[in-house]
Amino acid sequence: xxxxxxxxxxxxxxxxxxxxxxxxxxxxxxxxxxxxxxxxxxxxxxxxxxxxxxxxxxxxxxxxxxxxxxxxxxxxxxxxxxxxxxxxxxxxxxxxxxxxxxxxxxxxxxxxxxxxxxxxxxxxxxxxxxxxxxxxxxxxxxxxxxxxxxxxxxxxxxxxxxxxxxxxxxxxxxxxxxxxxxxxxxxxxxxxxxxxxxxxxxxxxxxxxxxxxxxxxxxxxxxxxxxxxxxxxxxxxxxxxxxxxxxxxxxxxxxxxxxxxxxxxxxxxxxxxxxxxxxxxxxxxxxxxxxxxxxxxxxxxxxxxxxxxxxxxxxxxxxxxxxxxxxxxxxxxxxxxxxxxxxxxxxxxxxxxxxxxxxxxxxxxxx
Length: 367
Prior knowledge:
Largest sheet: 8 strands, parallel
Oligomer: single chain
Cofactor: FMN
Protein name: (S)-2-hydroxy-acid oxidase
Keywords: Flavoprotein, FMN, Oxidoreductase, Peroxisome
Number of strands: 12
Family: Belongs to the FMN-dependent alpha-hydroxy acid dehydrogenase family.
Organism: Rhynchospora pubera
């Protein structure tokens, strides 16, 4: 009988063993030198916990709400592409696992299962990730379908005017099949993938995504949907303030899993800047580099309302399908609960800035 994985790192190792190299690299790779990819994880390690003792922690409540929807814990499923590469059931298996763990899933625009399939797979609250296409009617159609099938919010990705240079995909000559939800809506002539060109992801992005996307387009999106709009891809205070002024319902501090601009900062290192800038006007979420319940605790202490987990979900899906995704979510929830107990906090609201010490804190203490 094989040993069950006991942490996310072990799930990553299993995924690396069972997936073709091209697919694992697609899931796990980053842009350029992958400095930001490494830093997303390393930055968490530089934040220390400051536990309080002699607190009654016999009852721990990890539940929270987002846009009025209750979750068992502040750990959500981030939008990631092409789950069928990891398991034949794809996003349907992921959706069922998220529902079983009573958490929110954000369905990727690059889902390998149709919006309808995921919506009918189980009864749960889900959000839909959107990109703005050069042909705006494509985006409008996807929004209408998301509304029709009961998705509760639109998560607009705003950090991709052009695709980041993902050298592993280029080297592997990665080919992206037509995305299920774009059938009949988009025709992309990517041509043969040659040694000179490498990955056809760049061709797909250049022919479909709109590099002219700007703040005025938030008004356009609001004009075609009554759903709350969350902006994903903000890492500066200035952009966070502008987003609030535009009337969005939430912000995701994200560098696209380090797949866009290399040498952009780790998300956890700019979270507090964004949280302070919005001053509680909208919930601030974060993704990127989360591998432990302690990471979740640190993000909450620095002001995040919830975290989104991407690659670990894919690792669990590749390793054990729906069961693996459930295991990953339960693992992170269990680690968060233990961290809360050991830090003397019995509810999410009790986790405060005083429970962590950042690198900046240590530097200031020496001045």
